Amino acid sequence: MGKREFCAAALAAALLTGCAGGGDGNGTTATRAPSPVDASAAAVLEDAYTRIVAAVLPSVVQINTDQGEGSGVVYDGDGHIVTNAHVVAGARSLQVVPSSGGSPLNARLVGTFDAGDLAVVKVDGANLPPASFGDSTRLKVGQIVLAMGSPLGLSGSVTNGIVSATGRTVTSQREGAFPGATISDAVQTSAAINPGNSGGALVTLDGTVVGIPTLAAGTGSGDLAAGIGFAIPGDTVRTIAPQLISSGKVTSSGRAALNVTIAQTFSITTGKADGVAVVSAAEGGAAAAAGIRKGDVIVEVNGQATPTTTALAEILANLQVGQTVPVKVRREGKEQTFQVKLGELPGG
């Protein structure tokens, strides 16, 4: 093995020691051959990768629609497949292609939860092995993970990385028929996530799916930021998917809400976003019950400024249903604060 190859292996495995020995006094550098211990550690990791891929990849599918393509994960033995809502948004036709190949299988939409960017589709009469979803709350930063899916239409692709962080709150923007979503407790990973990976599987080395890759971070120029991707946590999937399978909708989102319809406001002097207008407040909802009404502009929730609708959504995503928080609004040029007992985000 050459020096460059050995360095790459050492970095990937994070188990091997340095790539080069000291100089020999003649201006040259000797390359240290891997010890039996190094080779053994690399072999163990390689074996783990191949075993997990063989076990889990058959449960990961490519989803093709008349709007585009993405990935999905088989959820149960009845042909239900979990994916991202943005993968199937606006689709009039759906087909599923197993990672092992074969003819496309016709699928139908069971239900979507746009606010959390999750959806379930179903294939009838196919023998697709379900994946095992694990406890994403037990993930640790630095833990090795594999991302499986169909990036750029390359079905059955696998990339590796680590859990870079947990508990992130991230927001996706409107995209075609998809209104955008705010995801709480997202898993950040360094595993490569490219267009087409959305809806696939983020898998630990014990073979359990702990997340659904959904977003890749972007740069100011619009390019994707390498090594910064986000996945919906597996625990959220285990909460939402059964509801979609049962009734085609989410009846208990577990997400805090003010129960208002909102719109972005802008300063007439600077042109910058300066609050979130209440277009309507649902009768008996959290905001209305506290005294907030149509025409109010929400400028702060729980001590955090809300200059944009995205900021408001991200703040609410980190609060709890039933929690009472101060909400500051601008009404007829004056600021007022209301104590609001938060309601639940509707699943429809």
UniProtKB/TrEMBL annotation:
Pfam families (alphabetical): PDZ_2, Trypsin_2
Signal peptide span: 1-22
Domain PDZ: 266-333
PROSITE patterns: PDZ, PROKAR_LIPOPROTEIN
Keyword Signal found: yes
Transmembrane segments: none
Keyword terms of this UniProt record: Hydrolase, Protease, Signal
Name this protein carries in UniProt: Trypsin-like peptidase domain-containing protein
Organism: Actinocorallia aurantiaca
